[in-house]
């Protein structure tokens, strides 16, 4: 399997709430055992809104992170924005948002775990997991949310991967095909809020989470299995235009090219 960048991981240690009154106030508030004590009550959460979880890693992308957070926060379908900071060697910087920010916003410090723990800031039935180098249009997010309302148990994503059998090495490989896919990446994904809880808290997945933590890789594969165990179906791929600043084909122009990039 291809090695994934650390920015794709979702390690959490402590949730830092941003004050909406007097400057930026950070208060540790996450207890893992408490988070896993109860699953999100989907029936009490609005189905016509999205919580956005941005996985951030690179300090050099602070300006881009601020723009992305502000863009997400300005969308009517977004109820909250949470930044998951996964760089253990660099402290997180708060995205530059107007005070008070349009929705609740948060930052997360790193830990040794690569599991996307459920967040108390989940304000919607459906969640967007996004990297800090992708920028979907409002139209594409609205389309994904409408698909989620018709297929609420499915993973919905924009960056597919596939598997194939390599005849030369006589082994299975992780690859990309234009005409088929097996999984979708957490690079940009819409899923039910309770899938985060199942991923992070189900005892029977402890061994799989340990592999993800040890390899610092494959959290998207595990998330696809979590959904498959619930639905016995594959994920849904959304076609459309997503700006991918991390794609090498975009670096020559500073990542400003428009178009569909398959990650």
Automatic annotation (TrEMBL):
Keywords annotated in UniProt: Disulfide bond, Signal, Transferase
GO CC annotations, alphabetized: membrane
MF terms in GO: glycosyltransferase activity
Pfam family of the protein (one): Glyco_transf_64
Endpoints of the signal sequence: 1-23
Ranges of biased composition (kind: Pro residues): 91-105
Domain of life: Eukaryota
Disordered: region residues: 91-113
Family matches, as InterPro entries: GT64, GT64_dom, Nucleotide-diphossugar_trans
Residues in Glycosyl transferase domain copies: 50-249
Membership in a protein family: Belongs to the glycosyltransferase 64 family.
Name under which the protein is recorded: Glycosyl transferase 64 domain-containing protein
Species this chain originates from: Vanilla planifolia (Vanilla)
């Amino acid at each position: 399997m291809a090695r994934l960048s650390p920015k794709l991981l979702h390690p959490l240690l402590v949730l830092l709430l941003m004050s909406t009154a007097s400057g930026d106030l950070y208060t540790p508030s996450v207890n893992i055992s408490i988070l896993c004590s109860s699953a999100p009550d989907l029936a009490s959460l609005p189905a016509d809104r999205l919580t956005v979880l941005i996985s951030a890693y690179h300090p050099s992308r602070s300006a881009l992170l601020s723009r992305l957070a502000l863009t997400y926060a300005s969308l009517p379908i977004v109820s909250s924005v949470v930044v998951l900071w996964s760089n253990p060697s660099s402290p997180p910087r708060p995205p530059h948002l107007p005070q008070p920010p349009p929705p609740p916003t948060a930052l997360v410090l790193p830990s040794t775990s690569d599991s996307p723990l459920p967040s108390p800031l989940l304000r919607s039935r459906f969640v967007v997991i996004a990297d800090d180098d992708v920028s979907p249009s409002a139209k594409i997010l609205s389309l994904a949310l409408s698909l989620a309302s018709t297929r609420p148990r499915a993973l919905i994503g924009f960056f597919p991967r596939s598997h194939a059998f390599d005849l030369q090495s006589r082994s299975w490989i992780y690859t990309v095909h234009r005409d088929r896919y097996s999984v979708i990446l957490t690079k940009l994904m819409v899923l039910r809020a309770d899938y985060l809880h199942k991923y992070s808290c189900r005892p029977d997945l402890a061994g799989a989470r340990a592999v993800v933590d040890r390899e610092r890789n494959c959290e998207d594969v595990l998330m696809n299995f979590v959904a498959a165990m619930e639905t016995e179906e594959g994920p849904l791929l959304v076609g459309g235009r997503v700006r991918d600043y991390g794609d090498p084909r975009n670096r020559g122009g500073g990542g400003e090219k428009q178009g569909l990039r398959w990650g």
